[in-house]
Amino acid sequence: MTRRGSPSTGKDQGASPLGTARFQRRFADRFAKDFFRPFAGELAASSLGIGTYLGECDDADDTGYAEAIRAALERGINVIDSSINYRCQRSERVVGETLRAAIADGVVKRDEVIICTKGGYVPLDTTPPPTRDDYLAYLQHTFVEPGIVAPEDIVGGGHALSPSFIAHQIKASQANLGVRTLDVYYLHNPEQQLDSVQPARLRTILRRAFVLLEERVGSGDIGCYGCATWNGLRTPPDARGHLDLSEIVGIARDVGGDDHHFRIVQLPINLAMSEAIRLPTQRLGGRRVVPLLQATAELGISVVASASLMQSRLTTELPPAVRDSFPSLATDAQRALAFVRSLPGVTCALAGMRSLAHVDENVAAGKR
């Protein structure tokens, strides 16, 4: 159902404070008072967002995501999270097609919706190559030979953060999503680089990427940027793969000044992965080491929680104590989402949704 290079969803430049506030007013009476929250500056974001990571690279899951995204927009969710490498670019493409149709039908306006995506992993195209050799040939023909990425910039067989690669990926995501402005652009799992390079080298890589990203904010290609991580922000300072958020923000400030556009981080936060709340992983002010959510609060960085349902593993059999903490909610999925949404410092809790039933169940976690 999805097509490449969908026409733009509108002439405006992406999500705006006025547009997201309009969306908030339209749905505010359906939800708890804190359901909509400040996001990456002055935007108003639903504290539940729809993710598009899981699933097969097939038409059936395209259809499921299309139905769920449309329903989420109709029910008060205005944060959509994707990545160019999710499901061989099909997730971005179905987001673009669905958003365009929703705008055409008057369900939403472009400036009401916060579109988030990521770049860093080599994206496949529609379906996975059948063999490793086919993948290597695809990588060589599609990215190396045209000069989009140099072989020495690729780590782990498929991860790169070089400016030329990220520039190409931004353009490709704009085409897939059919939008002029990517509201949030994440560097995807930058800690992946630390499997092959030293921390000093990663700092140089990030600095060069941030120069590009600040330029792309200026040109209107992106609204703001950040890092979407898996382990990097949850591990102790002496652990391999650790990311120092204060240091990263310092690089952004060096590149973009006090008005830099590094505004947001994404990482797993859920009932089973609670490091962001309880584990001191981030250095602030010299020797002080604090949990991630304290660090983001002091640094002025928004937080999006990924894996809020731990890829559906937290949707059943939660302990009685958790159920007792949320007596008004009917299902364990709702309770798991409500837990993440209730954490001070979390702006938005993401959950993958591929059916109308999932959307209706999850949205209830934020209602009055």
Describe the structure.
The two termini are 36 Å apart. 38% of the residues lie in helices and 16% in strands. The longest helix is centred in the middle third of the chain and has 21 residues, at 199-219. The model is unreliable at 1-7 (pLDDT under 50). The protein is an alpha/beta fold. Helix 2 (59-75) packs parallel to helix 12 (356-363), helix 3 packs across helix 5 (163-177) and helix 6 (199-219) packs across helix 7. Helix 7 links the parallel strand 7 and strand 8 (262-268). It has a single domain (17-366), classed as NADP-dependent oxidoreductase domain (TIM Barrel). It contains 12 helices and 12 strands. It has helices at residues 17-27, 59-75, 90-104, 132-144, 163-177, 199-219, 245-256, 275-278, 292-299, 320-325, 332-341, 356-363; strands at 36-39, 43-46, 48-51, 79-81, 114-119, 182-188, 222-228, 262-268, 282-284, 288-290, 302-306, 348-352.
Give the SSE layout.
Layout: H1 17-27, E1 36-39, E2 43-46, E3 48-51, H2 59-75, E4 79-81, H3 90-104, E5 114-119, H4 132-144, H5 163-177, E6 182-188, H6 199-219, E7 222-228, H7 245-256, E8 262-268, H8 275-278, E9 282-284, E10 288-290, H9 292-299, E11 302-306, H10 320-325, H11 332-341, E12 348-352, H12 356-363
Parallel strand pairs: 3-4, 3-12, 4-5, 5-6, 6-7, 7-8, 8-11, 11-12
Antiparallel strand pairs: 1-2, 9-10
Helix pairs in contact: 2-3, 2-12, 3-5, 6-7
